[in-house]
Amino acid sequence: MDYVIQAGDTLSIIAARFGTTVEDIIRANPILQTQAFIFPGQIIHIPLPGKAPIPRAALYIVQPGETLNSIALKFNVQYGSLLQANPQIGDPNLIYPGQIIAIPLPLGTVTPAPDPVPFPPLDPFLK
């Protein structure tokens, strides 16, 4: 199932809402492994509980003031790859807010996210 990120959403909130895990959402959306954060308007795939997640291209809703170049920079993808993933865009200088575009996934990104490294306690007497 696809989901449009809303303001205030976190992967934890989304996972709890749909009865899945953050890890499964990341596996179903490999672009999330290279992004520092999620964006309102971004479309992600929510894996159904009990089924293996299927990696796929990320979908994104163009926001006011964005260009293909700014979107390419936001998602750390090459401009040419972004154009190639969106053959429906006739004029690359003419995109509009609300338009849904595909964000290409780099090859080899379908790997599990590493386990987080725990931070040491602030107080050395706390364990």
Total beta-strand segments: 4
Main beta sheet, described?
Answer: 4 strands, antiparallel
State the separation between the terminal residues, measured CA to CA: 41 Å
CATH architecture: Roll
CATH topology: Membrane-bound Lytic Murein Transglycosylase D, Chain A
Return the string of H and E elements. EHHEEHHE
Question: Helix segment count?
Answer: 4
CATH class: Alpha Beta
Return the average pLDDT rounded to an integer.
Answer: 77
Please estimate the helix content: 10-25%
Physical arrangement of strands within the biggest beta sheet = 1-2-3-4
Domain module count:
1
Radius of gyration: 17 Å
Structural class: alpha+beta
- Shape, please? elongated
**Strand content bin:** 5-15%
How would you describe the overall organization of this protein?
This protein has 127 residues and is an alpha+beta fold. It has one domain (2-103): Membrane-bound Lytic Murein Transglycosylase D, Chain A. Helix content is 23%, strand content 12%. It has helices at residues 11-18, 22-28, 68-75, 79-84; strands at residues 2-4, 42-45, 58-61, 100-103. The protein has a four-stranded antiparallel sheet, with no helix packed on it. The chain is elongated. Mean pLDDT is 77; it is low at 107-120.
